[in-house]
Amino acid sequence: MAAWLVRRVAASIAIVLAVVTLTFVLVHLAPGTPFLPPPETPADPAVTARLRAQFHLDEPIPVQYIAYLGQLARGNLGLSFALRRPVADALAEAVPNTLLLAGAALLLDFLLGLALGVYQALRVHRLPDIILGNATLFIYSFPTFWLGLILVLVFGEWLRWFPVAGVGDPVLCPAADSLRCVIDRLWHLTLPALTLGLVGAAGTARFQRAAMLEVAGQDYIRTARAKGARERRVVLRHQLRNALLSFITRFGLAFPFLLTGAVLIETIFAWPGMGRLATDAILRRDYPVVTAAALLASTLVVLGNLLADVLLAVADPRLRVPAHA
Amino acid sequence: MTLPTWLALLVALALAGAAARAVRRRFFRHPTATWGVGILAFFAIVAVAAPLVAPFDPREQLDIIRLKNQPPSWTYMLGTDVYSRDLWSRVVFGARVSLVVGGLGTLVAVTLGATVGAVAGYYRRWADAVLMRGVDVGLALPRIFVLLMAIALWDRLSLPVLVLTIGLTSWFGTSRLVRAEVLSLRERDFVAAARALGAGPARVILRHVLPNAAAPIIVSATLGIGNVLLLEAGLSFLGIGVAPPTASWGSMIADGAPTLATAPWTTLFPGLAIALVVMALNAVGDGLRDALDPRREDT
Amino acid sequence: MLGAMRATFLLLIAVATLASCERPGGCTGAYCGTLVFVSPGEPDILLPPVSQQVSTRDIGDQIFLKLADIGPSTNTIGDEDFQPQLAERWEWDGPTTLVFHVDPRARWHDGQPVTAADVAFTFDAYNDPAVASPFRNALRRVASVTARDSATAVVRFRERYPEMFFDAVYHMRILPAHLLRGVPRDQWKTAAFGRQPVGDGPYRFVSWHAGQSLELQADSTFFLGRPAIRRLIWRFTPNVPVAVTQLVAGEGDALEYLGTPDNVSRVRAAQQMTLYPYRGSSYGYLGFNLTVNGDTTQPHPIFGDRQVRRALTMAVDRARLLTSVFGDLAKVPPGPMSQLWWIWDPEIRQLPFDTVQAARVLASHGWRDSDHDGIRDRAGQRLSFHVLVPSTSGVRKQYARLLQEQFRTVGVQMEIDEVEPSVFQERAGAGRFDAALFGWTTDPSPSSGLVQLWSRSGFGGSNFLRYDNATYDQLVERATGGVLTREQARTTWRRAIETINDDAPAIFLFAPDGVAAIHSRVADVNVRPDSWWALVRTWRIPPDRLIDRDRVER
After folding, report:
1. Would you call B83 an interface residue with chain C, using a CB distance cutoff of 8 Å?
2. CATH architecture of structural domain C30-43+201-273+514-554
3. Where are the domains of chain C?
4. Which CATH fold would you assign to the domain C282-512?
5. What is the pLDDT of residues C178-190, one digit of tens each?
6. Does C441 touch chain B (CB under 8 A)?
7. b vs e for C409-445, b when ≥16 Cβ sit within 10 Å of the residue's Cβ?
8. Which CATH class is domain C65-180?
9. Are both C30-43+201-273+514-554 and C282-512 of the same fold?
10. CB contact under 8 A, C136 and A44
């Protein structure tokens, strides 16, 4: 196990390095320059040239790449061209926001999805199952950003139940330093988390229902039933536990994608998270932020993979031999 | 709406219903899968017969002052958008773009993924290691970043390039799936027999292994089209995607978003179209999975 | 199980009730008030010399002072219409020397007095190439700024021209030398000062939560009068429609630019807002590239021909397009100008809308539809071109689609290339485009814009179209240099604009009106067209109109 872990970690580092290199090259080759003035303002070419020189952007790309690697090795993520501050600072502020959103969405996804899936499996082929089955199928097919727009329109504008955008109320609660402000944060979190979580929950429900029904036919379940245990205990203990295993795998693999997949949601809800930071950086050719975001995202992906494999190995003794060599 | 338009629409509905009923008689046990086939057939027929079904030219700006952002009415079934174009006509022609991008993009992705997965699974050892690490890198790259940047490399995105780009970034999951199938299949007797008879690796893969791995590939492809559709919608919403004035469902949502509060129908109907098609694809995919996989029991 | 659920539910209710309990009391009187600006843009750095963001200007207006500020007439000629700010008075010491007397009451927010040394330091910084300030070019005619003593700053110019005073005061916000002297000039663009600025203006900086909000608090000892509104909060939103939604929902108090008739009608329907129109400072046009890839020896195959350009201009119904996009919230500009400029004159000679004439001219120049595909052609080449549009401008995207239709009806094919703004700028600068939809936000003065964009000196700079007309250059030089009376200047400018209109290097499409939405409880509102929130310190909220936001003590 230890040897396998070391090999996986080494491979993971190689993958992250490959991702960062690819991103670096792509973003430097893309047409369009950084250091542009805001729209509808004429640019002064002398200023742009000066800024490019100050950031060494006119040197050949391999030279810049080596310099960047050296900088990374010293733990310096560089200075953002557009945000005018260290990239690490910008990321440090953005990542918690994305984690909050992704975490809330995942929680909703997991709890609601599992509950629905279990409920459907218990009532399989009867009316509640059919209705819920079609409803989850429908919701699962929504484009998430479209769902977000609809939710904002209905709950934010028409009903005024939830705020339309932003992380919190800047007048009363610029920082979450009191109970009231925490609740304000949660209130602002509701619509974006709902948007991300509902579609995910629908998918989880479908998946869990299928997984639980598949497990239902297995031998050990029949054995438990033959032993006379009550139906409910049979379900809850055996089926749930095994279905949980597959959720853990999905969780480990899905979490990093929630971070970058939240781009559209963050744009619609003005959520200052990593997805928006990265997208804006790509649009503005803010090279240091783009490569740092790619670095962070790919690290999270490989960590997620690693975590999923380790969790599975811990949870299921049969799997202590690695799944993919 | 003129008489020929109504007739064309009714014909499309009838054909869709017939397709669904025919399919049902075979081996699907899901009513949902049948509905799915019906919906897909409807959209496919409508897309093909677009010039007949659409009452207006989708690019025609009917009256940019008086017919801007009009709610649904008898003449304009789904209303008009901000450029006074008939929404129903645009949805109909948009079906062509979205379905073509979805279908072709998935074709590219599945072909590439199946090839890579088959080679990795068949040859194993270093080919497998190299290719699968490549897949890992591909999966580790945040998809939307890669697309944004790949799209940034071309000044203007034409339809073929869009299809290619989407295909080239969507094949990783399929390759893993195919690899797993090939790994288990290559130990089977019929493969050993084929090799004993002197068949080369390509022949073995193409004629013996892949056809038996077809089932999961087909299911993955069907579900994949849905993902590509959603991806194309998201890209158009971000402003990169099909060039105007071509209608695509995603760009229609993007066009309507600024006036969401005052003209919600411009955003509602294209999104609904996407949801319906993706839902149909998911339902059909589920049905196919159950029908083609004999190992699975009642679901 | 059920008992646990009931208990949880009751607990949640209790928590919610406790949390929503209002604290009674709070601020009362004339100096309360919290104004929330919903801003579609966020500053990059609050150090004025290195930032061009509009929001930096808006916030900078509250934190920093200029020597003198433009008056309500936004007249930029001479010095009569300017109002003292940091300088309490000034006099002319010769034709090219201006002497400012710094107000002795002025203080930095950390307590230090503001001196003439700060003024001299500021000019030195703005002018330093290492700072790479975008405003350096605007100050090119200022030779030096020195401190004669601690209260007197002397500005020397290279030459005498009508807008000397404007150049001396408008572009620079005076900076604290004692805090910025130690920062190396080439690090100014990322200086930490820019995230925690210390100024001398009516409001002091409190906090900035990146991507979310920024807070300023009134300086009660401000020497020009204590601001009545106690707190200013900027709330950052992604775009204008979301900002409007926040206004309508009561989450914000002010938005400077509503833009479209949709937004205006939504705000009008919200009872608590009042609309304030003002002269808009932007304009947009479809520019024709007169060369191939910026090479002036190779005229563009289609747009190199003046008559063809004139025909294309006449083919577009600008008024109808304007009504579709803006309703009644914009005007068709009589040339490359915004409504803010004093030279605005609807009587300036322009090309009329005349599709018959346009078709005739095109046909007479050989552009006929010989293969009946709906597109004109000549010697095998189709009358087809690509237009570059930045993907971030909703208005220009709309115009692109409308123009496409307009051109199609006269047999001209226009294809739309929507590209990212950075690509747009790059291709425009290099001349790699056929046509492009440009939009500019202007200074109150016509001088910089009309020179940078349309004269030979703008080659390699902002004259992307490579428009070159010696007559125009001479007229502009006469209007901006020397000493003319206002009427003479107006006539000269008019002749210059008419020269451009006759050559038709671009179709001038829109000059939007400004409409700001501000909460009705605010009194004494004054929106200055060149810098919307410059006069916020003179606004007030009467004590009988305070709402919850205003009363919060924090």
Report:
1. yes
2. 3-Layer(aba) Sandwich (3.40)
3. 30-43+201-273+514-554, 65-180, 282-512
4. Dipeptide-binding Protein; domain 3 (3.10.105)
5. 999 999 998 999 9
6. no
7. ebbbbbebbbbbbbbbbbbbbebebbbbbbbbbbbbb
8. alpha beta
9. no
10. yes
User: Which residues in A lie closer than 8 A to residue C390 (C-beta atoms)?
Assistant: 39
> Do you know the residue count of chain C?
554
Q: Which residues of A touch B261 (CB under 8 A)?
A: 153, 157
> How many CA atoms, within 13 angstroms, populate the side-chain half-sphere of residue B141?
26
**pLDDT value at residue B38:** 86
Of residues A228 and C189, more confidently modeled = C189
List the subunits that have 3+ CB pairs under 8 angstroms with A.
Answer: B, C
Judge contact between C99 and C113, C-beta under 8 A: no
- Return the ∠ at Cα B86 (arms to B80 and B87), rounded to 5°: 75
Q: Could you say which of A133, A143, A157 has the minimum Cβ distance to residue B233?
A: A143
Q: Do C241 and B258 touch (CB under 8 A)?
A: yes
State the amino acid at position A275 in one-letter form: G
Which residues sit opposite C275 in a β-bridge?
C517
B264 has a chain C CB within 8 A of its CB: no
DSSP A36: P
- CB-based contact C245 A31, cutoff 8 Å: no
Q: Is C196 on the interface with B (CB under 8 A)?
A: no
Please state the ipTM of this predicted complex. 0.84
Asked if A44 and C554 come within 8 Å (Cβ–Cβ), the reply is no
Q: From residue C5, give the alpha-carbon distance in Å to each of A116, C8, C9, C10, C11.
A: 18, 5, 6, 9, 10
Q: Say how many C-beta atoms besides its own lie within 10 A of residue B144's C-beta.
A: 24
Q: Count residue pairs from A and B with Cβ separation < 8 A.
A: 139
Of C398, C404, C423, the CB nearest to B82: C398
B155: which 2 tokens?
């000044």
Contact C199, C48 (CB under 8 A): no
- Predicted model pTM: 0.86
Tens digits of per-residue pLDDT, C297-353?
889 999 999 999 999 999 999 999 999 899 889 999 999 999 999 899 999 999 999
Q: For chain B, which chains pass the contact test of at least 3 CB pairs under 8 Å?
A: A, C
